[in-house]
Amino acid sequence: MAFDPTSTLLATGGCDGAVRIWDIVQHYGTHHFRGSPGVVHLVAFHPDPTRLLLFSSAVDAAIRVWSLQDRSCLAVLTAHYSAVTSLTFSADGHTMLSSGRDKICVIWDLQSCQATKTVPVFESVEAAVLLPEEPVSQLGVKSSGLHFLTAGDQGILRVWEAASGQCVYTQARPPGPGRELTHCTLARTAGLLLSATADHNLLLYEARSLRLQKQFAGYSEEVLDVRFLGPEDSHVIVASNSPCLKVFELQTSACQILHGHTDIVLALDVFRKGWLFASCAKDQSVRIWRMNKAGQVICVAQGSGHTHSVGTVCCSRLKESFLVTGSQDCTVKLWPLPKALLSKNTAPDNGPILLQAQTTQRCHDKPPPSPIARTSTAWLLPPTTSCWPQVTGVASGASSSLPWTRCWPQPQLMAPSSSGRSRTSALPTSRPGDISCPTPSSLQTFEGHDVAFVSRGTQLLSSGSDGLVKLWTIKNNECVRTLDAHEDKVWGLHSTPESSSGRL
């Protein structure tokens, strides 16, 4: 579909090979053009409303020019060998630029209806935009000749000089998959450029410098984990079914999309002060991110060493000194934080710092998703991380795998949860210096997938496959409240500290 410059006419193309024009004000069809073979997938009006011209393209890769005044096809433009993906016009209306999946862009003289230049761009182009004919040094535009911008399957924006066919500017390619660009449009009066990615995100740029202004997160599919971020819990981190992380500012809903992982992010955790957080993914790696006071987040460290997906991560609670990861390779690794990360003024000039696992321990006989992995292991951390913590006890009894474990604010309880029948048990653990409890026993069993201790450890929040969030009193095993807002399984759960607003 496409509107004309006056926004009173609407053109539509369909699977029947027809192009129809509709009067939006009077609500009736004004024109019905036939002659296109197969599906008509592209329509565009000429920018001069007095000329009453419509352009369309179908599966034959030809561009047809229709006259609304004569109700006929004026010309058929042939130069592309694959589907035409976009049509854009110069300000004076005498020149048209077409792009296609045949990896070329064609410049047309609309007065003679002839192709004047074919530019190979070496990628499948989904959208092309003609830039204003004025010098823009930031984009490599040094003359006032015709220049255009392309967006396609390489996931970057590039600027081309039409006369020479040379690329004069190439945007830095961001890491990670799913960055292919599917749409691009220029708002001339606002000086903004909007592009859409294959993973349903919108990126808004300042047109003269291509400096990223805003990001809009699209469809996220399943949300796998979520955490509050910032000393005042001002932001929320979301791990969805994607290698990208999304950081939302709660007050404005502004979004920052973080790239770094190359496969789906599975779990998150935040350090005590709220500026640093960790993520782990199917790419067998763990990353540490830092948010500054302006709300900008960058990756400051990364580590690899697991031989399978890293499904869980836990940050040290008392101070920012280490983190622990668990993987489907049946091992747990302890990663000390380099001192350089703890400096607020430290910025990774040469990229993220490389983390080194200090110790590795095989903890289970089967990986977490296995129905056989039905035991929970309680660990006692020594005063320093110079050696691996001792096992204080092993508890069994879960009906299926154990994808989540949470520790009580005080070190006497742990809460492993089971994914089989959505059950959570509160287990006693040994106090610091006391390893006389070799076999922890279950104090209480609650229904739930993920868990979070609240009310200074006297209550427990649980979420399950029924989409409900329940608040339990641990002492008497009583469900005191049920929150019903989700429509499907709840995978992630995180609550703010006691001293804050108590949000969930």
From TrEMBL:
<feature type="repeat" description="WD">
    <location>
        <begin position="451"/>
        <end position="482"/>
    </location>
</feature>
<feature type="compositionally biased region" description="Polar residues">
    <location>
        <begin position="415"/>
        <end position="428"/>
    </location>
</feature>
<dbReference type="GO" id="GO:0034511">
    <property type="term" value="F:U3 snoRNA binding"/>
</dbReference>
<dbReference type="InterPro" id="IPR019775">
    <property type="entry name" value="WD40_repeat_CS"/>
</dbReference>
<feature type="repeat" description="WD">
    <location>
        <begin position="1"/>
        <end position="24"/>
    </location>
</feature>
<dbReference type="GO" id="GO:0000480">
    <property type="term" value="P:endonucleolytic cleavage in 5'-ETS of tricistronic rRNA transcript (SSU-rRNA, 5.8S rRNA, LSU-rRNA)"/>
</dbReference>
<dbReference type="InterPro" id="IPR036322">
    <property type="entry name" value="WD40_repeat_dom_sf"/>
</dbReference>
<dbReference type="GO" id="GO:0005730">
    <property type="term" value="C:nucleolus"/>
</dbReference>
<dbReference type="GO" id="GO:0030686">
    <property type="term" value="C:90S preribosome"/>
</dbReference>
<feature type="repeat" description="WD">
    <location>
        <begin position="33"/>
        <end position="76"/>
    </location>
</feature>
<dbReference type="GO" id="GO:0000472">
    <property type="term" value="P:endonucleolytic cleavage to generate mature 5'-end of SSU-rRNA from (SSU-rRNA, 5.8S rRNA, LSU-rRNA)"/>
</dbReference>
<feature type="repeat" description="WD">
    <location>
        <begin position="303"/>
        <end position="335"/>
    </location>
</feature>
<feature type="repeat" description="WD">
    <location>
        <begin position="258"/>
        <end position="292"/>
    </location>
</feature>
<keyword id="KW-0853">WD repeat</keyword>
<dbReference type="InterPro" id="IPR015943">
    <property type="entry name" value="WD40/YVTN_repeat-like_dom_sf"/>
</dbReference>
<dbReference type="Pfam" id="PF00400">
    <property type="entry name" value="WD40"/>
</dbReference>
<feature type="region of interest" description="Disordered">
    <location>
        <begin position="413"/>
        <end position="441"/>
    </location>
</feature>
<dbReference type="InterPro" id="IPR020472">
    <property type="entry name" value="WD40_PAC1"/>
</dbReference>
<dbReference type="InterPro" id="IPR001680">
    <property type="entry name" value="WD40_rpt"/>
</dbReference>
<protein>
    <submittedName>
        <fullName>Transducin beta like 3</fullName>
    </submittedName>
</protein>
<keyword id="KW-0677">Repeat</keyword>
<feature type="repeat" description="WD">
    <location>
        <begin position="77"/>
        <end position="118"/>
    </location>
</feature>
